[in-house]
UniProtKB/TrEMBL annotation:
Stated family: Belongs to the TDD superfamily. DTWD2 family.
EC number: 2.5.1.25
InterPro entries: DTW (IPR005636), DTWD2/TAPT (IPR039262)
Taxonomic lineage from the root: Eukaryota, Metazoa, Chordata, Craniata, Vertebrata
Protein name per Swiss-Prot or TrEMBL: tRNA-uridine aminocarboxypropyltransferase
Gene field: Dtwd2
Length: 166
């Protein structure tokens, strides 16, 4: 008969002959495309020609709270924002949990009455209605992640419920 011999199977039903030698196959390392050092985009789609040559002069300081999964995404936008602002006006903190002990500067910022956090909710004020009366520069906290990740960060970090929500 022209039938192929049946593959040997173990008592638990696993196909041993079909997988034999699979572990010997070479594993190719996935190499990322070269990235631009300024905008962190792949070099072939670098956006630096469209970004300001000199950092923008802004009075508001941004604290970007970035979920760790966002840091490795190819088309992430935080590096674009950071490339447009002076380093002292754009601070990026990567993580899921931000305690007062580990992030004393962030705790101080969250307690500042001029600090706003960009997060939707029943307590949030329309940003257009927020009048910045103070002469001191304001601070804006932005959570970078999917809605699920942002919600997790917001609700599991009591510091983020201290600033005015917009």
């Amino acid at each position: 008969s022209g039938a192929a011999p049946a593959a040997a199977a173990s008592e638990d039903g696993e196909d041993r002959e079909g997988c034999a030698g699979l572990w010997e196959l070479p594993v190719e390392r996935c190499e990322r495309r070269p990235e631009c050092g300024r905008c962190s985009r792949p070099q072939k789609v670098c956006l630096c020609p469209f970004l300001p040559i000199h950092p923008l002069k802004v009075s508001t300081c941004l604290y970007i709270i970035q979920h760790p999964a966002e840091e490795s995404r190819v088309l992430r936008t935080v590096p674009l924002l950071a490339a447009c602002l002076p380093p002292d006006k754009c601070k990026i903190l990567v993580g899921r949990r931000f305690s007062e002990d580990r992030y004393p500067e962030l705790a101080t910022v969250c307690r500042n009455p001029n600090t706003l956090i960009l997060y939707p909710g029943a307590e949030a004020t329309n940003l257009e209605e927020v009048a910045v009366m103070s002469s001191s520069p304001s601070v804006m906290i932005i959570i970078d992640g999917t809605w699920s990740q942002a919600k997790d960060i917001f609700y599991k970090n009591s510091l983020f419920r201290l600033p005015k929500q917009v």
